[in-house]
């Protein structure tokens, strides 16, 4: 049996992938159009409030799911870059894991690289 983290990772991966499809956009578009039409017939503020609440909740949850997915992809990307840097004999190994350095340190190294190009 998979643990909670593995289940959440699988769900996040599949959900984030699905939300980037035309089907997801079409589903969202049709939902909003139907909700709008329903609101015209009901002449009630309740329909607008429920739509706003529904979309706010979905947006709130998607931010966290997408951030989780992006964090995983970023970490994998950093590992690949670190492997490429470490495999090159003339590479500056100081750049391995530089994303963990302070912003000031990163700016300093960036300026040093800019000066080398001149």
Write the layout of secondary structure elements.
Elements: H1 4-19, H2 22-42, H3 45-87, H4 103-117
Helix pairs in contact: 1-3, 2-3
Short description:
The protein has about 120 residues and is mainly alpha-helical.
What does this structure look like?
- With 118 residues, this protein is mainly α.
- The chain has a domain at 4-72.
- 81% of the residues lie in helices and 0% in strands.
- The protein has four helices and no strands.
- It has helices at 4-19, 22-42, 45-87, 103-117.
- The chain is elongated.
- The chain starts with a helix and ends with a helix.
- The model has no long low-confidence stretch (mean pLDDT 83).
- Biggest β-sheet, characterized? none
The class by helix and strand makeup works out as mainly alpha
Strand content: under 5%
**What is the tally of beta strands?**
0
Oligomeric assembly: single chain
SS summary, helix count? 4
- Average residue-wise pLDDT: 83
């Amino acid at each position: 049996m998979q643990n909670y983290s593995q289940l959440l990772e699988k769900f996040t991966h599949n959900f984030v992938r699905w939300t980037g499809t035309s089907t997801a956009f079409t589903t969202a578009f049709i939902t909003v159009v139907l909700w709008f039409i329903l609101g015209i017939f009901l002449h009630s503020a309740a329909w607008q409030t429920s739509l706003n609440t529904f979309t706010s909740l979905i947006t709130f949850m998607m931010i966290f799911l997408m951030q989780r997915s992006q964090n995983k992809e970023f970490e994998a990307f950093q590992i690949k870059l670190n492997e490429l840097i470490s495999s090159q004999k003339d590479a500056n190994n100081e750049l391995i894991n530089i994303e963990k350095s302070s912003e000031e340190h990163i700016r300093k190294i960036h300026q040093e690289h800019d000066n080398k190009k001149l």
